[in-house]
Amino acid sequence: xxxxxxxxxxxxxxxxxxxxxxxxxxxxxxxxxxxxxxxxxxxxxxxxxxxxxxxxxxxxxxxxxxxxxxxxxxxxxxxxxxxxxxxxxxxxxxxxxxxxxxxxxxxxxxxxxxxxxxxxxxxxxxxxxxxxxxxxxxxxxxxxxxxxxxxxxxxxxxxxxxxxxxxxxxxxxxxxxxxxxxxxxxxxxxxxxxxxxxxxxxxxxxxxxxxxxxxxxxxxxxxxxxxxxxxxxxxxxxxxxxxxxxxxxxxxxxxxxxxxxxxxxxxxxxxxxxxxxxxxxxxxxxxxxxxxxxxxxxxxxxxxxxxxxxxxxxxxxxxxxxxxxxxxxxxxxxxxxxxxxxxxxxxxxxxxxxxxxxxxxxxxxxxxxxxxxx
Length: 374
What we know:
Elements: E1 3-9, H1 12-29, E2 32-38, H2 40-45, H3 48-52, E3 57-60, H4 65-71, E4 74-75, H5 83-91, E5 102-103, E6 106-107, E7 110-113, E8 117-122, H6 133-141, H7 153-164, H8 180-194, H9 206-215, E9 222-227, E10 242-245, E11 263-268, H10 274-285, H11 287-296, H12 304-307, H13 310-313, H14 319-328, H15 339-355, H16 360-373
Helix pairs in contact: 1-11, 7-8, 8-16, 15-16
């Protein structure tokens, strides 16, 4: 009997579908998979190599792939005998989810959860989402807006606004992150909004911000940029249901350039049974499981077939359908070896600069220097 160990992130969306699908996988194959969890903060920063030495299956974030490739700690999926299955999953990618796990010609993960920064609002408090960024500012003046800014989410907001304005940040190593004037323009938009929201936004990640608006305990009812969590779109999950929509346009081309998130499943190069782990990974990323077991157990699908399926959309009031345009046009973060160091440092520079009212040009200069050095 084969027993594998898996590591995912600590949230019902990250844990429950892995347990449920693994139970069915055991019934089908006799392979047991025991899942552990790590915090969202650890998920965004913990070294994958350390996890690979202790787990067979790991749920990862795509910006780690450059480091992963350099460390040779994961098994690539693009084996000759699996090319047909891989090509099928590539065709079923939601936006850039599938290619985001490809680095230097190798596929290091399969998307099982697709997400990007989208818009969220209390369904019973607003008649619809903000369409233009000016609509966001107008609602903020009424005390109806907050924004999750806990590291690294301030940087994700910066990325999204930069791309939406038509001046996306650099996605490859070398050179400056963004042109100085373009970066200053993004900071001006962020500063204008931050002056209108409560300061505890700096303590909130997307989950905390969604909890706030779903609770109904304060006046805030809109998150203009946040990673979507479909649980909040279901009836009865919290006192107030949250609706999700495409992002408001700061530039002139609609919901373009949101910073891609989501998760992929990876296989450790040190696994006790790499083939058994690969078998499960392909199965759980496939359209049939994603449309049924995965989403029926709290998962947020990473497969386009599921995103377009009416039965998947119905219980979450069109969560997938209403944010698909944003996800299809999302922007992939840098993924080179060294990027994760910048993500932490860049977030720190950005937060300190915005909170302390530092000169915008100085903030951009420091961010560009940090990016070039990593």
